[in-house]
Amino acid sequence: YRTDEGQPWVLPVVKKVEKIIVHDDRLNHEYLPILGLPEFRSSASKIALGDDSPAIQENRVGAVQCLGGTGALKMGAEFLRRFYNGNNNTKTPVYVSAPTWENHNAVFANAGFEDVRPYKYWDAEKRGLDLAGFLGDLESCPEHSIFVLHACAHNPTGTDPKQEQWKQIAEIMMRRKLFVFFDSAYQGFASGSLEKDAWAVRYFVSVGFEMFCAQSFSKNFGLYNERVGNLTVVAHDADNLKRVLSQMEKIVRTTWSNPPSQGARIVALTLTSPELFTEWKDNVKTMADRVLLMRAQLKSKLQALGTPGTWDHITEQIGMFSFTGLSR
Prior knowledge:
By secondary structure, the chain is of the alpha/beta class. The chain has helices at residues 12-22, 38-49, 54-57, 68-83, 102-110, 131-140, 163-175, 194-197, 199-206, 238-253, 262-272, 274-304, 312-316; strands spanning 61-67, 94-98, 116-120, 122-123, 128-129, 146-150, 179-184, 211-216, 228-234.
């Protein structure tokens, strides 16, 4: 995200919280716990799942503080390769959308998965979601396959399933015993609403999925170089969660040992203070509204120029990315 001048935008609430941290004499540079700053982990999971999430109330949600969203994907992939559906999942298929963020393929391959496949997603002719193709791949894939789903603001198409379509996707995934791994890199940043952007994640939890959700705070906090990420774990019960987190600790210990504090403190302080939380939501909405305005202006300009074709898809898409359909 850049300003009209092409510069990075440091969120006003982030500047405020950084000053609070500097002047807090209680803070030091001691190691954090292996799984990360507890108040960061819990508050990050709460904005993904909602304060009133039954899974949180039932003590079956945990988290791992990670090095950005990429680190969260990496930790989830490493765990799944070791412990999902047996103790050797190198042959378990991992499905990523066609197209997807290029690092999805690399992260899972690097974790030892030998069968990373595309699932149908983008319909170039309609300039929208290929729902029939997507559902068809869900029906035809091997049971227990792993699917990486974009929670909102699909990268790189900008096209998300509608709520009714998400329900169809969830029904097949539950029936066919497929593992849900959400990648949530743009919550709040996409529509300006934390709730709207988390709808799919919360729906899947509500119907009983055990799943992972990788969260990044690079875009919605502007903390790109602080590497602030969280892997939210939703388990069937508290006992299962305890076992998962115990194994996660072992993986983290040999990867980065324990995570950095600065970015996590900024996010945790912001999310746990009602006043700062409100200010942050306003800052995020400022960014989201500007992106939405730029989409509307692009569509209007194309129409004013008499560019052949229809351009409604530009404003129907969401987030930082767009497949415009322009040929040159």
